[in-house]
Amino acid sequence: MDWKWTITAVLPVMSLILGAWLNQLSETRREGLALKREQRLRELDREQARIDRRETFELAHLAEASACLSRLFRAALLCHMHNVNSTVFESRSGEYDQERQEMGRLQGLVLDDDLRTRVTQAHEKLSQMRHSQVDTAQLLGDSQELVGLAQEAMAERLRGIYASAAA
User: Fold this and answer.
1) How open is the CA angle 52-57-106, to the nearest 5 degrees?
2) Domain that includes residue 127, residue range
3) Predicted TM-score of the model (pTM)
4) What is the CA radius of gyration of the chain?
5) Helix/strand/coil for 111
6) Residue among 104, 98, 110 at smallest CA distance from 151
7) How wide is the angle at C-alpha 93 spanned by C-alphas 92 and 97, nearest 5°?
8) 74: nearest Cα among 153, 118, 129, 131
């Protein structure tokens, strides 16, 4: 048998087989990279959806907590004004108690730890007015300062959430 004939017949077949194998290897690698890219995109989409849900939750509860804190302070102020000669809350305490309970529920839903601490401090100071045997005017003044700080912090957080959503 002639070597020239063997090389001429075998070399193209081997080239064809090698080319097909390299093509298959290239396709497999390309598909693997495409799957990894799609998986990464799905992970990014899930993360963005989680962030969006968290921001929506936080926006709703911060707005509700801020409004409730204002109503609680207003109710405490009205109780104080109504009972100016008494150190015990007797009348108008229903609204105060209702807002105090609502604020107790909402303060646990504030996600930011520092903000939750401020809201809790304001709530606790306003709650002391219910059982205080001392001058409630001083408690009211302290409460007003804490409520102001808490609402300022909530407003700052709300602005931060809206700023990140706009970016």
Assistant:
1) 160
2) 51-166
3) 0.68
4) 34
5) coil
6) 110
7) 140
8) 129
**Angle of CA points 159, 161, 162, to nearest 5°:** 65
Q: Residue 161 domain-assigned?
A: yes
1 within some domain:
no
What confidence tens digit (pLDDT) does each residue in 30-62 have?
Answer: 999 999 999 999 999 999 999 999 999 999 999
What is the residue whose two structure tokens read 């309970």? 101
Number of domains in the chain: 1
134 in a structural domain: yes
**Which helix H or strand E contains 20, and what residues bound it?**
helix 3-82
Q: What six digits make up the tokens of 100?
A: 């105090």
CATH number at residue 119: 1.20.120
* pLDDT value at residue 21: 96
Task: In whole angstroms, give the CA distance from residue 103 to residue 141.
Answer: 19
Which amino acid, one-letter code, is at 74? R
Ranges under pLDDT 70 in the chain: 1-2, 82-93, 130-135, 167
Taking CB atoms within 8 Å and a gap of at least 24, the contacts of 8-16 are none
Using one digit for the tens of pLDDT, what is the confidence trace for 93-102? 677 788 888 8
The position carrying tokens 């609204």 is 95
